[in-house]
Amino acid sequence: MSPFRPEIDHMSGYRPGEQPQEGGWIKLNTNENPYPASPRVVEALTAAAQGKLNLYPDPLGTEFCLAAAATLGLDPDWILPGNGSDEVLTVLTRSFAGATDQIAYPYPSYILYETLANLQGVRHARLPLEPDWSWNFDTVGKTIEQSKLIFVPNPNSPSGNRWAFDDLLALVPPHGMLVLDEAYGDFADHPHRCELLNSTAGKQIVVTRTLSKSYSLAGIRFGFAIAHPDTIVGLRKVKDSYNCDVLALAAATAAIVDQDWMHQNTARIRQTRHRLAVQLKQRGFTVVDSQTNFVWVTHPSGQHRTIYEDLKAKKILVRHMVFEEVSWAKDHCLDGLRITVGTDAEIDCLLDALNW
Ligand SMILES: *Cc1c(COP(=O)(O)O)cnc(C)c1O
User: Fold this and answer.
1) φ and ψ at residue 103, rounded to 5 degrees
2) What is the Cα 194 distance to its own chain's centre?
3) 230: exposed, middle or buried (C-beta count within 10 Å: 0-12, 13-18, 19+)?
4) Could you tell me where the DSSP H helices lie in the chain?
5) Which is the closest atom of ligand 1 to the Cα of 110?
6) How far, in Å, is the centroid of ligand 1 from the Cα of 282?
7) 130: exposed, middle or buried (Cβ count in 10 Å: 0-12, 13-18, 19+)
8) In sequence order, what DSSP letters do the residues of 270-311 get, joined into one string?
9) Residue-level pLDDT at 15
10) Tens digit of pLDDT for each residue in 189-231?
């Protein structure tokens, strides 16, 4: 007999993208930033490593909260630091989803939300997206009403599109919380500024951000939640006391202070994204307009697995994704390629390799 809870036995577990440990790969599969983090991060890490590693870190990450609040134009008590934004999503799930509650999320979208619901042992429901990645509120209205917690990545992954404020407000469950996962928010042409937290539904909204993508810090685990101070007070009860270590806090604080560095890199990525989309369309691919650091592409031949394998043989990794039970897709199965926007040189290699 398995010693595991039945929920754990019955789930397959979240499968992250491949992380080859040897060099020589062009990695366009997990939406990492191809540019290095701010030099200030390295300085801060060096200083912190020479500091008092024998002591526990500040449980509230006060210095980070002050720095982040200043850049966001908020008070520091609106911020909760986390060990990656995935950890923040776990804390939100544990905080809001009780045994009889339901979690919902768009589909196709970030698969981790379903994993979190399974781990928590609660009901979950998909909010099916239309073929153009828009919402049909006639179809999803009832599920929204019945949910306690709704996760929405905005912009969405794998599609890369972003939804308007009106759509997002319509997603706030009447008796629950809406989490806007803004992992890719900084790559949008006009980034959001937490405007919805000031709306009438503001107390039912939590925004999450990560330093993994726009700040080039996937290797340092750090993300944070932004929400009304009453919400933050509750979330602090749920998180691990010392969820962010001294080094991560030092790196994150330095990174968020250096907004110019982040803006320079996201601007470069937006330019490369545009060029990549144009070139892929010329090669016959269908490309969704992206507000992120990746593009979602399909090819009329449907040979996505073959393309993925051909590229892999040339040491170029992209993400081949398959979503089952998509009513509008051929055989109800949507598959395609999610390609991270790398450096211009990396994208040139990819485009050369795609010249078949
Ligand atoms: C990358 C990603 C995250 C995770 O960010 P971490 O801070 O690295 O845990 C969260 N949500 C979405 C949609 C992502 O793509």
Assistant:
1) -105, 140
2) 16
3) exposed
4) 6-10, 39-49, 62-72, 85-96, 112-120, 137-146, 165-170, 229-238, 246-257, 259-282, 304-313, 344-353
5) 13
6) 31
7) exposed
8) HHHHHHHHHHHHHTT-EE---SSSEEEEE-TT--HHHHHHHH
9) 84
10) 999 999 999 999 999 999 999 999 999 999 999 999 999 999 9
Mean pLDDT for 107-136 is 97
The C-alpha atoms of residue 64 and residue 76 are separated, in whole angstroms, by 9
Q: Is 153 in the pocket of ligand 1 (CB under 6 A)?
A: yes
pLDDT band at 356 (very low <50, low <70, confident <90, very high): low
Express each pLDDT in 297-340 by its tens digit: 999 999 999 999 999 999 999 999 999 999 999 999 999 999 99
Closest listed residue to residue 97, CA positions, set 147, 144, 155, 63: 147
Q: Which residues pair with 338 in a beta bridge?
A: 296, 319
pLDDT tens digit sequence for 66-86: 999 999 999 999 999 999 999
For the chain, domains (ranges, CATH) are: 6-30+260-353 (3.90.1150.10), 39-259 (3.40.640.10)
Beta carbon of 182 within 6 Å of any ligand 1 atom: no
Q: Is 212 in the pocket of ligand 1 (CB under 6 A)?
A: yes
Q: At what angle do helices 246-257 and 259-282 cross, to 10 degrees?
A: 80
Identify the weakest region by mean pLDDT among 7-11, 152-156, 171-175, 268-272. Answer: 7-11
